[in-house]
Design a protein that fits this description.
With about 400 residues, this protein is mainly α. Helix content is about 70%, strand content about 0%. The longest helix has about 100 residues.
């Protein structure tokens, strides 16, 4: 190679290659091939970057869509859950409404039958008024029948025993005015109905209502468990206040020490021993008083319902009002002779008292005893009917 570099080739214009063939090495485009490969590599790199950017954008779009879809699913699930809860509540309300509707329909049917019976009685009264030309006995029997029918309705619907007794006694009195043997069977039936009504146990509705009113009036004065001031128990004895040591006691102790000293060999007491004995007596009295005061500072109580201690003043007000409403509902159930509701309301009231009120207080114990006495009253009395007297009157009228 050194020789070729040192000996340059001569210019030979005549030795040119043929025009029909050009070597790739001597072609003018041969030098641009590396540039094309570099451009191709740059394009590939650019396409790769663009592809990565597109993939990243697609991944970000997928992640965003996935996150939104997941949040949407959670929201839909929550809404479906709330919808299910609402549907359950609506079903419960609808069930209660259906039950109330059934009860109302039963009551309406009873009222319809009673109304039809009242209408028939009204027609009977109109017929009675139209037949004024009948004799006095027929008119008296029709009046007795009407009175007994009304008393039977009052006895069945409202349990008015006194009203039924008065109606039967008045009917027997009216029949006793006419000395006719035909009325003996009717009077016997009336007498048997009177005996059945008198044999019923008496229920003091007014007395029970007065006791409930008294319990309602005591609700505002009953202490709650959350009250700040501790209430003295009605059963526990009052604690004795610590009494300071009396001088006589100290004198007795001093006399005992003197006697002990007299038994010992006689030696004059020193000032130090006298001061030490006085200091011991003073420390004993002070420690006794301090211990008594410390025992009064801390009180430990065991509560079955911790929620009752955490009541706020507003919640305490609603606890008292809820107890009053329970007792008022029991009073209404008593007047309507609904024993099931009466006993349920009294049981709920006693549970509220035991849960939220201080049962050690005398007022609370008095109210509980009053409610137990009221709850012991028996309201489930099977009322008899006056069908025997009515049938006797109607059979006599049919035979005539």
């Amino acid at each position: 190679m050194n020789e070729q570099q040192s000996t340059p080739e001569p210019n030979l214009p005549e030795a040119k290659p043929e025009a029909s063939y050009t070597s790739p090495a001597s072609s003018p485009h041969f030098s641009s091939a590396p540039d094309g490969a570099a451009a191709l590599r740059r394009r590939m790199r650019l396409l790769t970057v663009l592809l990565l950017l597109v993939i990243a954008a697609l991944a970000a779009q997928w992640w965003t869509s996935h996150t939104e879809l997941r949040s949407l699913r959670n929201e839909v699930a929550q809404r479906l859950q709330s919808g299910d809860n609402t549907n359950n509540e609506v079903k419960g309300v609808l069930k209660a409404v259906q039950e109330n509707t059934k009860e109302l329909q039963a009551k309406v049917s009873v009222l319809d039958s009673k109304q039809a019976e009242s209408q028939s009685q009204q027609l009977a009264l109109e017929q009675m008024y139209q037949d004024l030309n009948k004799n006095r006995d027929d008119w008296a029997l029709s009046e007795i029948e009407d009175v007994l029918s009304t008393a039977d309705q009052q006895l069945e619907l409202a349990g008015n025993v006194q009203g039924a007794l008065i109606a039967l006694q008045n009917a027997d009195k009216n029949l006793s005015r006419s000395d006719k043997p035909q009325f003996i069977a009717i009077r016997r039936a009336i007498a048997r109905d009177i005996d059945r009504l008198k044999a019923l146990p008496t229920v003091d509705i007014a007395g029970i209502a007065v006791r409930l009113d008294s319990a309602i009036g005591q609700v505002d004065n009953m202490p709650l468990l959350v009250d700040e001031k501790p209430v003295e128990s009605a059963t526990e004895p009052k604690r004795m206040q610590p009494q300071p040591i009396k001088p006589a006691k100290a004198a007795n102790g001093k006399a005992a020490r003197d006697a002990k000293a007299a038994d010992a060999p006689a030696e004059p007491p020193s000032a130090w021993s006298q001061w030490l004995a006085g200091a011991q007596d003073t420390w004993q009295s002070m420690s006794t008083e301090m211990w008594a005061e410390l025992k009064q500072l801390v009180r430990i109580r065991e509560v079955q319902t911790p929620d009752a201690i955490l009541l706020s003043p507003g919640q305490a007000y609603f606890v008292r009002e809820n107890l009053k409403l329970r007792l008022l509902n029991a009073r209404l159930a008593l007047l309507s002779r609904n024993e099931f509701a009466f006993r349920n309301d009294l049981s709920a009231a006693q549970d509220n008292i035991a849960k939220y009120f201080d049962t050690r207080a005398k007022q609370v114990q008095t109210t509980q005893a009053l409610l137990k006495q009221v709850q012991g009253s028996n309201l489930s009395i099977q009322m008899p009917s006056l069908a025997e007297s009515l049938n006797a009157v109607r059979n006599y009228k049919a035979r005539r």
